[in-house]
Amino acid sequence: MDLPVDSPRRLDLFPAASGPLAIVGNAPGLDAAAAIDAASCVVRFNNAPGFGGRAGVRVTHLALVNRGGQMREWLRDPRFLDRPVVRCADAFILPFPMLPAEQNRPEQVCWTREVLELLAPLGKPVHILPEDLHQAARLRLAPVTTDPGPAGRPNPSTGFLVTLAFLLGRPLRRGPVAAHGFGFDGWPGHPWTAERAWFRQAEAAGHLRLHPCHS
């Protein structure tokens, strides 16, 4: 629990992603269980809708948003660790670095320490994405966003941050990352149009393969 937040041990995502990699978004209409489960590394997000059914049954990395009301709700759920997707995950990703105490009041928004304590009994790796990755994401989104957000900085989604983390640490020779279930829609504070454009650019460059959802 006293390891530095951006410890290299926590950021060692990539040996597990040496084979085919599937990143599974939460858009409705996803029906790709066979293709997703065929990957050697399967990354999912938050409540992972469709897990155990049309979105497949494998998960190696589960990204859990560690700021805001969603994590506060999970921390109040005494059965959170019993959720199938939580039990089945081999490792967890927290997309936001821990805020210093003086920046986490008067209203608490960062729950990093609490979720580390919650997950500790599972004995599984927890990877915390550093501020450097957030800066890299903003730099990539700024040229293609029309709504840069507060202070002129795009606010990337968890899906974008995690996908970028894997792309930056994965040699191209291992083949493109398969992205399933990305609808580029949700909380209005994220630059969805810019994220969609960046994903298309990554696909054109051979780093990513987007698989559309079906209604």
Descriptive keywords:
215 residues; alpha/beta; 13% strand
Spatial arrangement of strands, main beta sheet: 5-4-3-2-1-6-7
Low-confidence runs of at least 5 consecutive residues: 1-11
Round the mean pLDDT to the nearest integer and report it: 86
Strand content: 5-15%
Q: Which secondary-structure class do the elements indicate?
A: alpha/beta
Question: Could you please describe the fold and organization of this structure?
Answer:
- This protein is α/β, with parallel strands linked by helices and 215 residues long.
- 28% of the residues lie in helices and 13% in strands.
- The protein has helices at residues 33-37, 69-75, 84-88, 112-119, 131-141, 158-168, 192-204, and strands at 21-24, 41-45, 61-63, 91-94, 126-128, 177-180, 208-211.
- The protein starts with 20 loop residues before the first strand and ends with a strand.
- The model is unreliable at 1-11 (pLDDT under 50).
